[in-house]
Amino acid sequence: MATSTEAPPSGVRGGLDALNSRHHQLGLRIFLFIVVAHWAEHLVQAIQIYALGWPLPEARGVLGVPFPWLVTSEWMHYGYALLMMIGLFMLRPGFTGASGTWWKTSLGLQIWHHLEHLLLLLQALAGAYLLDKAAPTSIIQLIMPRVELHLFYNTLVTIPMVIAMYLHTRAGRSDNASARCHCAPKD
Q1: Keywords for this entry (predicted)?
Q2: Could you give the CA distance from residue 52 to residue 125 in angstroms, rounded to a whole number?
Q3: What SS3 string covers 110-154?
Q4: What is the 8-class DSSP label of residue 179?
Q5: CA-to-CA distance for 41 and 65, rounded, in angstroms?
Q6: Are 130 and 136 in contact (CB under 8 A)?
Q7: Where do the domains of the chain lie?
Q8: Distance (Å, rounded) from C-alpha 109 to C-alpha 155?
């Protein structure tokens, strides 16, 4: 048996290597929990508005009811969009084949979603709003209300991510053969 004189990766590179190999399944589960919890917050907010008839300022999702600042904080929304983008980027190397394509699609959509939140944050910090609107406004928000837009964005990012995870964890898929993790059970 040949031995390698090359030291195992350390630091950030070693952490990313471990995340996309032996800890990939755990990383995906934690990330999926965070994503679904956030998406559920947007869904609950829409239910509060459209099914329960709550006025918009009172429809704040689950966590926004006891902590109203969560809904109005552009920093919190931007931070989540950034966290989501970083998570998608960091977990990307663990995906191969069709699952990799779906994961990259989710990442691309999240990059746009992140840019929209960056625009909102910059407006809030500057106190100057797009097209002299009364509040920070994103580009697509010019044609779609904010509550619906962010539920749509989070759904749009989540769907290809879930498809990628589904494909990635199926046994017997030839495009999973080169994956370095153990997310898919072996035949």
Answers
A1: Membrane, Transmembrane, Transmembrane helix
A2: 33
A3: HHHHHHHHHHHHHHHHHCCCHHHCCCCCCCHHHCCCHHHHHHHHH
A4: -
A5: 11
A6: yes
A7: 14-172
A8: 10
What does the longest C-alpha to C-alpha distance in the chain come to?
70
Helix ranges, the chain (H): 11-19, 24-50, 69-72, 74-91, 97-126, 146-168
CA distances from 85 to 2, 8, 57, 113, 154 (A): 40, 27, 28, 9, 12
Contacts with 161 (C-beta within 8 Å, 6 or more apart), sequence order: 32, 35, 88, 102, 103, 106
Tokens describing residue 26: 């755990």
pTM of the model: 0.86
pLDDT digits (tens, 9 = 90+) for 36-65: 999 889 899 999 999 999 999 899 999 888
